[in-house]
Each structure stands twice: as C-alpha cells, then as structure tokens.
Amino acid sequence: MKKNLLDFSARELNLFMKEHGVPAFRGTQIRKWIYQGVEDFDQMTDLPKDLREWLTQYFSTGALKIKRLLKSSMDGTCKFLFDLGDGNYIESVLMKYSYGYSLCISSQVGCKMGCKFCASTGAGFVRNLTAGEMLGQIITVNRERGIRIGHVVIMGVGEPMDNYDNVVKFLREAQAPDGLGISFRHLSLSTCGVVPGINKLAEEKMPVTLAISLHSPFNEQRSEIMPINRRYPLEELMEACRSYILSGGRRITFEYAMIRDVNDTKEHAYELCKLLKGVQSHVNLIPMNNIPGSEFSRSKPEDVERFTKILTDKGIEVTVRRELGRDISAACGQLRRSETKEG
Ligand code: SAH
C-alpha cells in the first residue's frame, strides 16, 4: 500500500521530505494541496516534476474512494460508504444544520464494545483507522460536495477511546490552522465510557466536546446492555466526568437512547437526575433507532415527553435529537462497516 500523506503532521512531513533529500518547505506545499482535496499529484503545479512523479509512485493524498453515496429524500442527509483500499469499508454521515455542515465520522472498522442496541458492533472488529483515514473522510466529503464542514462528531462506527493515539492525532490535525482549521469546540468525541481514555483526554488540553453514551443510570442494567460498564461502572465513569469538567474541559453531553419499556420509566428519569446532580451537563435523548434483529424498540412519544419533563423540572438541560437520514439507515447506531445491499 502507498503511504498516506494525511498520516503526517506538518512537522513530520517536512522532516520526512528533508530526510529524503527534498527541501522541507515542499512538505508545506504538499500539505496545502492535499488538505484542499487535490487528488492528482500532477495538479500540484508548484512542485517540480520529478517530485510529483516520486509522490505518484509511492504516496497517496489520503482522499478516500467513494464506493456509494446515499442521499436522504427526507432531509438531505448524505451517507458515504468509503472504500479504504484494503477490502474494508466505513461510513460517514453528512448533516446540514442551521449553523452549517456537520460530519459524523468513523474511528474504527467495526467495534469491540458489544453494546446490545448498536449495529456498528454486530459484525465485530477489524482494525483501527489511522489519523489520516479520519481526516480523509472530511477532506473527501468537502471536495465531493464543494463545501466546508464546520463541525465534526466522532460518532460513527467505532469506539474512539479504543483508538486513542490516532484519534488524538486526528483531533490535532483537524484543529491545526494549516490543517482543517476546525476549532476544538466544534469537534466532538463520543465514548461508551472508557474511563482511562476520558482521564487521558482531560490532560491533553484540547477543549473538545465530550459526549458519553449513558443509556441507563442503573449499573446492573447498564452492564447488561453495555458490556463496558462491567469494567468501568457508573461511579467510576461519573468520577472521570467530574474531573474532565474540572480540568477545564467543557460541560459534558450525555447521550441516552430511549428504548421502550427498558430505560424510559419514571424511575430511570429520577435516578438519572440523581446521577447527574452537580455535574455540568446536557442530556441528549436519542429516539432508539431500529436495528435489524434487535429485541429493542423505540419509546412511545409520551414516555419521551414524561422523561424530558422530569429532567427539565430538576433543572437538567435536555434536547431530543432530531432524527436525520432514517430512510438511508444513517441514524445513530445504524452505521456499519460492511458493504450491504440495503444501505
Ligand atoms: N462508540 C462511541 C461512538 C459511537 S456514537 C459511543 O458509544 O459513544 C453513536 C451513538 O449512537 C452512541 O451514543 C450510541 O450509544 C448511540 N446508538 C447506538 N445504537 C443506537 C440505536 N439503535 N439507536 C439510537 N442510538 C444508538
């Protein structure tokens, strides 16, 4: 496989060039082109011909091959299936909001976490994505649609904390002014609750938006639907969240998929209030999306309403996530790693 130029930071690329007898500033030039989404080295007109030839032979610009693009007829959401070139596929979802475009990217091919309600984990885990492959999703979509994505959420396939080093490198390059130039505040990372990852992230001094997939305020039930809870139970998770906020991080988003008669009762709502007491937070309720073969279904609207009211009355800020891309299976928990017929 060719070397992915997006896997280099600015410093690394300049150094690499120097080590190969190419002036370091060529690295800066190359980087400018690849971040613009230029895929053909011959279009990099300020590079000498022999350098372009060398690059063409041994390197890739990191742009990803679009295997399939599905567009929702309901809301314009687009789902991209990317071919990684090694027989693996990943999905990204582009959403349009009043504040601009947001891309939901994948961080791994498959997932090890085994959450019972999520389709991403069903087919197992294959490998981590490199930082360049995460950047490539954004750069390719920008170029394909002729847009500039302003917000990125690492909420596609994969558990970002299980691919920590690459994800952190990705975040730095996504934020770098000579990279994608997206501010940390507009970069979100969602985790199922890998506590050591949260603690490490707190030390990186990158004020990204942290989201925690909570889904139940009761240890016993959470362990049943999210195996990670057996390793890091709620007490430890909440402790890590508190220190994340104290470390100068921002308030945390708690994601809560509303599953009918499973986690949507009054008792759950009250217990959730207790759990979040004194934690600077925001709860994002996600109407559960249907997964083929799953025993779970979506909460009734009146139960979502009751749940919301209990939280709001206790002073907790709640939003119900707008469902985008349902007709193309692009909603939360529906993304997969495989090339499937039904989308
Ligand atoms: N592994 C990370 C990143 C995935 S984010 C994490 O767990 O946070 C995807 C979000 O969608 C998570 O909050 C996940 O719990 C949620 N989700 C998974 N399956 C879902 C489903 N069927 N309906 C609604 N949300 C779901």
Briefly characterize the structure:
This protein is α/β, with parallel strands linked by helices and 343 residues long.
Helix and strand run: EHHHEEEEEEEHEHEHEHHHEHEHE
What is the global morphology? Answer: elongated
Q: What would you report as the Rg, rounded to the nearest angstrom?
A: 21 Å
Instruction: Determine the mean pLDDT.
Output: 94
Biggest sheet, in brief?
10 strands, mixed
What is the quaternary state of this protein? Answer: single chain
Estimated structural class: alpha/beta
Low-confidence stretches: none
Question: Alpha-carbon distance between the termini?
Answer: 28 Å
Total strands: the figure is 14
The fraction of residues in strands falls at: 15-25%
What this model shows, in words?
- By secondary structure, the protein is of the alpha/beta class.
- The protein contains eleven helices and 14 strands.
- It has a ten-stranded mixed beta sheet, with helices on one face.
- The two termini are 28 Å apart.
- The protein is elongated.
- The mean pLDDT is 94.
- A hairpin with a 6-residue loop joins strand 3 and strand 4.
- The site of S-adenosyl-L-homocysteine has 18 residues, from strand 10 and strand 12.
- S-adenosyl-L-homocysteine binds next to strand 10 and strand 12.
